[in-house]
Write a structure and sequence with these properties.
Layout lengths: L6 E6 L7 H14 L4 E6 L4 H6 L8 E4 L7 H15 L2 E6 L5 H8 L3 E6 L3 H21 L5 E8 L6 H12 L9 E2 L2 H9 L14 H32 L1
């Protein structure tokens, strides 16, 4: 990825409460701490990402685009993304938890769609709806839109049978699943309550802070590597054509 190239990463899931906002602010924070300029667009009417961003401790390299009550997200999301791409190396979009027109618009501009899934069949079923939405946008805009499933709020020590089955089903359907997961740790909840980043927390104050930092950095690294890989594949395809 060149310095002038802006990357749009969309966090999506047609079901609310799947952990996509936690993933969005975690990814934005880690990228900023690595030195990248980031714009975080909160395109969810609940505005949970914006609430975090307004608390103390947000990295200076993260700019916020919020959608206060009364602002039409569907009307503004494409312009918000376009403007953010002019200013930041990474644009992180936290979509609303429904398969809406605004979600479709956001997905249409993505270099990568990360679909948050907890270890439940309901989340897996809704993820399938989100994947279908991605594919509809691919058809509408005649472009490939890479996507991958992120397992969120996973148990720290166990790999439950239901979760194993869900991951197996995704793999059988040839749906990419990120190897790194966001483990269910108190630290991820703490940053949404108090603001700041995982690296501001201490194990003595919040359980699992150090391990959460490792989880977050591994997740971010895998996302960056996946984007590089898809961009290289797309470039190779253009050269062959």
């Amino acid at each position: 990825m060149t310095k002038r190239q802006s990357v749009v990463i969309v966090l999506a899931q047609s079901k609310g409460g799947a952990g996509k906002t936690t993933a969005a602010i975690t990814l934005a924070s880690e990228l900023a701490l690595l030195g990248a300029s980031v714009t975080l667009i909160d395109a969810d009417p609940n505005q949970h990402a914006a609430k975090w961003a307004k608390k103390p401790g947000r990295p200076e390299k993260i700019a916020l685009v919020e959608n206060p009550q009364g602002r039409d997200i569907e009307e503004h999301i494409l312009d918000d993304i376009a403007q953010a791409k002019q200013k930041s190396s990474f644009v992180i979009v936290d979509l609303e938890g429904t398969a809406s027109a605004a979600a479709g618009y956001g997905i249409s501009r993505a270099n990568l769609v990360v679909i948050a899934v907890q270890g439940s069949q309901d989340d897996a079923d809704e993820a399938a709806k989100t994947i279908r939405l991605v594919r509809r946008q691919e058809q509408a805009f005649e472009k490939s839109i890479p996507y991958a499933v992120l397992i969120t709020r996973a148990p720290a020590a166990l790999n439950p049978k239901i979760l194993r089955g869900i991951v197996s089903d995704f793999q059988e359907a040839k749906t990419p699943v990120l190897q790194n997961r966001l483990i269910d740790r108190e630290a991820f909840k703490a940053i949404k309550t108090y603001g700041g980043t995982l690296h501001d927390l201490q194990d003595g104050e919040v359980s699992g802070a150090a391990k959460a930092c490792v989880d977050a950095r591994a997740f971010t690294k895998e996302v960056i590597e996946l984007i590089r890989s898809t961009q290289q594949s797309a470039q190779a395809g253009r050269e062959v054509a």
